[in-house]
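quick one, 113 residues, struct below
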Amino acid sequence: MVLETTGGYWSPILWLVAFTVAFLIAYIIWGMGEKKYKKGEQVKPFLSGLKEPPKEQVHVKAGNIYWGFTETLKGYYDFMKKIHTGIVNDYVLWFIGMAAIFFVVIIIPEVIK
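---
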């Protein structure tokens, strides 16, 4: 029950044995963990003795994740906002124009050779 290809072989029985061994190793490592773990006070984050602020105050908004990226490319985004009309016809016109430019730049030199 082995599938051989040019890139290697696939044996489901060998995969199951490897998965079982990996699971047993993980279970043994988990079993060697701390037995005195207590839920409650130990699950709270350590904040150097400070009281944990409400979740709303520490929540990182999605806009904050991209702040450095958008701030660095602010000139580009401002330019793109100016040419952005929101009309589908403009997007189709841009697409056709760019396809024509790529056609001229990429295909025509190969045809001329």
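The chain has a mean pLDDT of 88.
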